Amino acid sequence: MDLLIPEIGLLAWNTISFLVLVFLLGKFAWKPIMKGIHDREQSIDEALNKAELARQEMARLSAQNEDLMKQAREERDQILKEAKALKDGIVNEAKSQAQAEGAKLIEKARIEIENQKKAALAELKGQVSALSLDIAERVLRTQLDDKAKQQELVNNLLKDVELN
Amino acid sequence: MDYNRVFVSKVRRLIVVFALFSAFLGFNTTAFAQTDSVAAHGHEASAPVAHGEEHAKEEKGFDITSFIFHHISDSHFFTLWGHGDHGVTLHLPVILWTDNGLVTFSSSAFQFDDAGEVVVEKSGQRFAIAHNKIYYANATADAHGSYVSHVTNEKGEETVTNARPLDFSVTKNVFSMLLSIIILVIVFTTVAAGYKKRVGKAPKGVQSFLEPIILFVRDDIARPNLGHKYAAFMPYLLSVFFFIWLNNMLGLVPFFPGGANVTGNIALTVVLAAATFLITTFKANKYYWGHILNPPVPWWLKPLMIPVEIFGMFTKPIALAIRLFANITAGHILVMSLLCLIFIFNSYAVAPASIFFAVFIGLIEFLVAFIQAFIFTILSALFIGMAVEEHH
User: From the record, what ranges are coiled-coil (chain A) (predicted)?
Assistant: First the structure.
């Protein structure tokens, strides 16, 4: 039972000591410690928030970059497409021009040939007529000698004439 | 309130401790019975007087009750090692407030007496010490040479009837407590210096060891029970927690400067519980008082409930005081009892088992040292939280 009855002197010592302890620790330990912990937690919170913001900023920037890249790619494709179209156009134009030119040349050549042919034919006609006249002259001359020979001659001549 | 789990786990633990405790108490009483009969036999026979006396003297060593109670109670001597003149003892100052004013002297004046056989005369007054308590000595010694009057009361307990001066001595408990205060102040001002020196940086050294515990007190004890008002009560809760914990741990150290049973002394737990009670009472808001003086029950229950609630105001801190005191004292008694088994059986053969169990209980006591500090703090926080809680 002795254990359950507090000693007055001990009570006094305990009370005073405990109050002094709470005062000393409260003033010189808990206040700076709790403040330090609180400040650190706040700075960590802030740092985390900032990191989050930076992350978002990064994401935003990279999305922007992505967009730019996409845009640039599209533009490049566009340009390439245009260039290709242009090239095709030029080539086609050149081709058609060349074709036209060729056709023209051919036409010209054909006309020339035609002309030449006409000229040749005209000349031929002249020659034929001259020849015919010559033949006729010869026939007429030889008619006088021998009828058979005349005929043969005429045939030979005609054979010669059948050129064209 | 969500504090059931605290009680449930505590109850379980208490059951274990008390089961062990009662088992060993049973052991001890049978041992006592044996020694008593042997002692009685020795006295009755007394044929060879010398042998009988020797026997009786030997039996004295078996009186583990007084041995253990001597160890768990306060003392004016702090024995470093050995016993009496053969050891090294720190003689603590005796400070008495007597009928004739303040009297101080060293406890060495009592020459290790504890039975009132040595009388110290100071400023015209005579003092004797018995069972660690200082009394005004009688003019003459009784048959046993004691200067204090022993009376056996109806329960069979021996008490001293002499008047006592007010004893403000620096006893073993006071010494140990002051030491713990010095340690706490030095350690935590060092930690605080760390926070000032390395602002916003990671903790270092002792700071990094103690910071998790401080955060534990804040996040697991103060915040759940006190809500957003926790900051104002942190200095008290932290002080109580570390004060109880350190003193519990010092009490488990078997040699100087530990070994004093500070938190197992009702005088300390009463002071701590009174502090919680005063904070609860003076910080209480109108809802708390409304709950006590006008409890939300049918009108016809009020005459019953109001006294119960008022009674409850006081039972809570009393339970706090008794719980801490009983747990720590029980632990000390248990360890001492286990070690005393060797002397009860008077055999070396018991020593291994006895030491094994004592070490085992000692390890559990390390846990208990923390748990009791935790429970005292969390219940303090809970009671304060109930008093400052805003309901609407």
Answer: 37-89
Structure tokens given for B231: 């900051």
* Predicted TM-score (pTM) of this structure: 0.73
d(CA B317, CA A17): 20
How does pLDDT run across B136-177, given as a tens digit for each residue? 888 888 888 888 888 887 777 778 888 889 999 999 999 999
B1 domain residue, yes or no: no
* Residue B303 placed within a domain: yes
Q: Tell me the C-alpha to C-alpha distance, in Å, between residue A159 and each of A52, A148, A156, A163, B150.
A: 112, 17, 5, 8, 186
Nearest to B118 by CA among B94, B148, B161, B92: B148
pLDDT tens readout for residues B256-281: 778 888 999 999 999 999 999 999 99
Q: Residues in chain B with pLDDT < 50?
A: 1-3, 22-61
Question: What span, in angstroms and rounded, lies between the C-alpha atoms of A161 and A131?
Answer: 8
CB atoms within 10 A of CB B97: 15
Helix (H) or strand (E) holding B355: helix B351-388
Domain hosting B148: range is 94-170
- pLDDT tens digits, B91-100: 889 999 988 8
Q: B19 in a domain, yes or no?
A: no
- The set of residues, in sequence order, having a beta carbon less than 8 Å from that of A138 and lying 6+ positions away, is A153, A157
Does A16 contact chain B (CB < 8 Å)?
Answer: no
What are the angstrom distances between the C-alpha of B208 and each of B186, B201, B215? 16, 11, 11
Could you list the pLDDT tens digit for every one of the 164 residues in chain A?
Answer: 577 888 888 999 999 999 999 999 999 999 999 999 998 899 999 999 999 999 999 999 999 999 999 999 999 999 999 999 999 999 999 999 999 999 999 999 989 888 888 888 888 888 888 888 888 777 777 666 677 777 777 788 788 776 65
Cis? peptide before B317, omega within 30° of 0: no
B chain contacts of residue A30, beta-carbon cutoff 8 Å: 188, 234-235, 238-239
Within 10 angstroms of residue B266's Cβ, the number of other Cβ atoms is 22
CB B241 within 8 A of CB B369: no
Q: Is B215 part of the contact surface with chain A (CB cutoff 8 Å)? A: yes
The CA distance from A47 to the nearest CA of chain B, in Å, is: 11
Q: Are residues B133 and B211 both part of a single domain?
A: no
The answer to whether B196 faces chain A, any CB pair under 8 Å, is yes
Q: Which residue of B has its CA nearest to A20?
A: B181
Q: How far apart are CA A25 and CA B96, in angstroms?
A: 30
What are φ and ψ of residue B375, in 5° steps?
-65, -45
Domain C-terminal end among B152, B170, B188:
B170
